[in-house]
Amino acid sequence: MQEKDFAIVVRDVSKDFGEEQVLKGVTRSFERGRIHGIVGNNGSGKTVLMKCICGFLFPTWGTVTVNGLRVGIDTDFPPDMGIIIETPGFLPNLSGVKNLELLASLNRKIGLEEIVTTIRRTGLDPCMKKPVSKYSLGMRQRLGIAQAIMEDPTLLILDEPFNGLDKYGVAEMRKLIKGLRDEGKTILLASHNQADIDELCDTVCEMDAGVMKIVRGDNGYA
Predict the structure, then answer these.
(1) 113/52 Cα distance (integer angstroms)
(2) pLDDT value at position 5?
(3) How many other β-carbons are positioned within 10 Å of the β-carbon of residue 198?
(4) What is the pTM of this model?
(5) In this predicted model, what pLDDT tens digit does every residue of 189-215 receive, in sequence order?
(6) How far apart are CA 160 and CA 34, in angstroms?
């Protein structure tokens, strides 16, 4: 395979916070059009790695390349990416639609029609007027997924996307994520639930104390 076949290429990435080394020489390439799972305990480095891929953090050393662009060199925040990392943040006094309209106004790629379609796709009612402050945790999580996918990005970074969802919601969102892969999107997924990983992921890596190892690979590419 050539580098263009990979949506994300991480090379010898380490990240220090003071004297603590949170990532230790992580090297991994993530093939396009697949769901790549990352597992590991809290503090293992999963979220820090995702933040380095998104441009929220820069590695202490090593390189991250997303869709051919080196993060921190060619681009600070890779384009064409949808993200959920940690708890999705919204303006509490506005409705879900109004929140997504504000976010969409930053890039001006989509309008109200696409927002309404996406909200329906995640199982929410676009006509609901109540503010996000009145949403349940599961509804907020659905709205977070909606904001990640609404601009139809080719790459999704999803850190614990099923938090707060009941079993029916999890089943619906798993189906949605499988459909996104079938559309050709590349998805990087972190989940504490082994069933999510087993059902959804084409490849699986494990983070442990900042070190990544391949659990279920893709023909050995690394």
Answers:
(1) 32
(2) 84
(3) 11
(4) 0.92
(5) 999 889 999 999 999 999 999 999 999
(6) 17
